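dude i think i finally got it to work??
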Amino acid sequence: MRLGLLLGFAPAAALGVGRFAYALVLPEMQAALGFSYVQAGLLGSANTAGYLLGALISHRVLYWSGYRKGLFASLWLQALSLALLALSNSFPLLMLLRFGQGILGAFVFVGGAALLLASGGKSIASGLYFGGVGIGILLSPIILPFMKTWQMGWLLLAGLAVLLTLIAYIIYGDLNEPSPRLGAADGNLKSITLILIAYGFYGAGYIGYMTFVTTALSTSVLAFWVILGFGAALTGLVWGPLVKRIGGEKGVIVVLFCLTSSSVYWFVIHLPWLSAFLFGLSFLGVITAITDIFRQLLPPSGWARAMGLSTAAFAAGQAIGPSLSGLAADSVGGPSGAIGSATLFLGLGLALAIYVVVRANHK
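look at this
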């Protein structure tokens, strides 16, 4: 548990702060720079496009550099990229920096997960690791009272990312490098193809919600974000034991059902605190369940590659999610269109996950 908890500060910095806190700075950026919903979505998509590229090349880059060195180098560089966002009003440059941060975020996420599995982490440790993203989300709103401008927001987030990276570094010496790739011995990845597609739908849906939910709120953004982060921080304690008991394939259905339900626009408007808590609690639980599926279906030498491929599928969904949600917002009812499209993507992922389990039970 200690391993998963401390290593979880890595995705807390790279994803909880580096990616998701964009939603905290976005309203100020839109007001100051006059960005449309489509432009705001494109900045989100640039980050997730970088995440996709990073996921696709992560296993090669991290094997070349060494997973531990690559992980922490990526953490420092992504904190620098957050600071650099404060230095330009140029939309193309902002796009480029968000793209670069996405690449580094993927290296952190894939590298940390692979190191955790190689170091003996099980379902509960995995849940704590992925729940680290929630720690970053929970802590990010502390910048709001001090954020006089959107530029100051990015500088404060960069400082927070540095602090979280220093905490993660405590565990450096306890991490084992993943097993070398063995080609065919890595296992038959066809067995996880449909799950990877469902994972892509999940990526498109959850990032649409995370990007635009703050634009729909009539309540405190700070309170909403804290509640969402608190729910996410409980991922390991809630979903880790459940996945251990019922398995990853059934677990992913339960988690996706909770996630899809919590994203419905009616809940966001009328029960925002419940939506925030359940969404926060569930969105990282999907990753916990997926990781358990890999552990059950593939040999250890295939885990790192599967994490890279799953993160690529996840990132592919995320790359198109914000833009499509932004287009829906501009075309159909503003925030209701954006969040409605996010719910649709999550529902498609849930339906496919159910199909996979039903088909497996009838073989």
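The radius of gyration is 19 Å.
im so relieved honestly
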